[in-house]
Amino acid sequence: MSRRGVVDGAHTTRMAEAADWLARITDPEATEQDFRGWQEWLAQDPAHASAYEEIERVWALSAYLPATPAQPSVGELALADIQQVPESTAAQAMTPVTPSLWRRVLTTSAAAIAAIAVVVTVAVVRDKHDVFETATAEQRSLRLTDGSQVVLGAETRVEVSMDEKRRSLEMNQGLAYFKVAHDKSRPFVVSGGGYAIEAVGTAFTVDTKPDRVVVTVTEGTVRVARTAGRAASDGAAPMLVHAGERALLDGSQPRCMAIDEAEDAALGWRDGRLEYMQEQLRFVIADVNRYSDRKIVFADPAIGRLEFTGTLFLEHIDEWLNTLQSTFPVTVTAQGAQRLVLQPSESAALLKALSSNDARSAEDDSQSHGC
Which of 63, 112, 236, 365 has a 20 to 30 Å separation from 36 between CA atoms? Predict the structure, then answer.
């Protein structure tokens, strides 16, 4: 056999092994042993990691390949341009995948593209550090090398650093859901907005905005502490947030609230649904802006203090804005193609609505409790 044939044979073998590992670790039933085996295989040879990345790109690309009678080779597919994976492919990625099914996927065309694009990635952290970002109206699902699952909302940025003693994620922008693989020897800590949220084996979301962090726990318990700069200024003690609770962190005394059907409330955004209970409009608009190229701004910042209760569907933002004008004393005006302005329709009505909101908020604060 020629040297070229030997090289091609070795490459084909590595690609087949990479496809098998991809199928195993994207299976929701994957075990810690599966992930350890995957990591050991990656460490055996730098060519293994390259093959895995190549096969992962092929898998992503397969969502946009037309079905053809002749099945192209893995090597040929790997040379094609890579595109985003739609939500339908994300659903495939989270179901058990066998090598034979994986091969069939390579020649199957994608279903209709969802309104919100979803990219599914199994994250291989390079040099123990990597950065993941999403664009406007994009969501991304990650499986970290320890087996933890992360779903990034739109316009979110997360820096991942992992070593033998600690799993650290820095997130000062956006919204993310974390389902943490159990590992007592390596704390899982998400830092953002001046807070550190630590979990060992649990599930929770973190929503970071310029002046507030919201932590919603759906499983287990997380520990929330101020980071060094904030702790030094007020000496606040760490607190525990349990399943079914939401913590609002804005630099003042943290507030906790119990939430019904915590998982649905915390994860509705993954399905294009945002739910609110007496939420200030400025935070609602901040969420909406993550999913729209037309950014909404306030002509008067006071409008942002109005409180909204209800469900907002991301596929129907324009309809929601129309109802907003009948609910609050505001009007919506377009300024060019990329900007919408919320402005008061009547100053006296706005002041009255704000006065009512402030009174209700004061009452709620007096009844709120620490976590």
Answer: 63
Give me the residue label for tokens 């739109």.
Answer: 154
| Architecture of domain 272-367 in this structure | 3-Layer(bab) Sandwich (3.55)
Contacts of 255 (CB under 8 A, 6+ apart): 247, 248, 365, 368, 369, 370
Domain spans, the chain: 1-84, 115-270, 272-367
115-270 sits in which CATH class? Answer: mainly beta
In this structure, are residues 175 and 194 in contact, taking their beta carbons and an 8 Å threshold? Answer: no
99-129 pLDDT, tens digit each: 444 434 333 323 333 445 555 555 666 667 8
Same CATH topology for 115-270 and 272-367: the answer is no
Q: Copy the structure tokens of residue 236.
A: 């606040």
User: CA-CA distance, 331 to 336, in Å (whole number)?
Assistant: 16
Burial 281-297 (b: 16+ CB within 10 A, else e): bbbbbbbbbbbbebebe
Q: 276-321: per-residue pLDDT in tens? A: 888 999 999 999 999 999 999 999 999 999 999 988 998 889 899 9
pTM (two decimals): 0.69
